[in-house]
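#structure-requests
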Amino acid sequence: MTYGDRRSGHRRARTAVVLCCLLAFVSAACTGGSGGSGESGQDGTAAGPIVVASGLDVTGSGSVRQQLIEEWNRRHAGSKDQQAKLVELPGGADQQRSQLLGALQSGSARYDVVNLDITWIPEFAEAGLISPLPVAGSGAATEDADFIRQVHATTVWKGRSYARPFNTDVGLLYYRPDLLTQADIEADKQPTANWTWDQLYSSVKTLGLNPVRRDERAGWTTQLKQYEGLTVNTVEAFADAGVHLTDSDGRYSSGPEDLKKGLDSLLDRVGRGRVQPAALTSDETASLTDFAEGRAVFLRHWPYAYGALGSLMKAKEYAVNRLPGKAVLGGQNLAVTADSPRAGNARALITFLTSRESERCLLDAGFAATRASVYGSTPKPCWPRVAAALRPAGGSSKAAATEAGTTGRQGTQAREAYIRLLGAALTEAVQRPRTPYYGAFTQVLQSHVHALLAAERPDTAAAADHLDHALRDVFAGR
């Protein structure tokens, strides 16, 4: 069944439910298949609670998402129907996607709001599982204009916005200034905002590192295990080579020659002697550990690593800057499920969760915020009770109070510089392919690229030809 068929079937089923309800004169009992027990109002304010489904909080910050839900509940303590509940889904991103697709397609779970990875928006929208947002009035449009343009674009599919940006992500370059200094690489030759991959390669050469085993120090490390991290690294290498796999409508727009150029770029980046041998089986946790324990001088990672390193290293042992070249955008968006009888209250909750104050809470907790004003000179502060409930991202309050040179977060000046570079990096980030077939695409890409990286004598021309045939089928929905 195609996505169009599935969407049409979904609409026909909903129409049948409505007609049955009208004929029986019991429209108050109609719940749209959500499994809810409350009455459904025309304004989408049926009996609560408003159920929010989300993945696990990776920041180690005291669950800022849960704290924001609790702040909303305190502000609506007089209304039982407006109370909200957070349901955290176990497993990795692929497992969460499968759980949400199954639950929403079958109607087996009563979710009103879903926190979707940005790459899932076209798929869920095309399948009719989430509702497009109402066309914003002038006031709402002004609020939406505060979202970073590239980040807000992830909510749009076929000209309609289906979600609001909640927390975002972008690749960053972490490095060990202590190890660079030991190798006589002076501060003025260490990473800057305009650093290139060639400069990184030059530093790795100066370091004289040529790791063969996993326990040996390497120039840098990243996430090349066969999972989404490999897709991200591949798309970044492709973007640096000027290779774009699809157009804005999700149609395949590449070919064998472009793919070879992209694969050559990736192989050059992760060639033997430069990257930590363990990178081929590393995810975010493993690569962060290798960096913290001195087995890599440079690390490609996400913003939450900045806080996590505060509990693993001394402040003078790590620093962060823009990723050389192109960096891929990540993050999650909040959408209202198509069958939610609490759609009105669900939209109000999303507006609160993505407000300027809430976005500041997310940034303070270790996520990357989605609003440009949060990175400005006079951002609105985090909600006071949420701020009091959060411990510093990646560590305890004791860690935050330690002085430079001891284990803990870096000082105020370094933190402010980090926020500025993070905001700048987000404005230039690139997206992964926008397609309703993203799940199939990423599995195909990972399979072909991982096999190439593991080969003793990788043949990028042959790999590009095979990948081209596979991607043509994927993006055509075959």
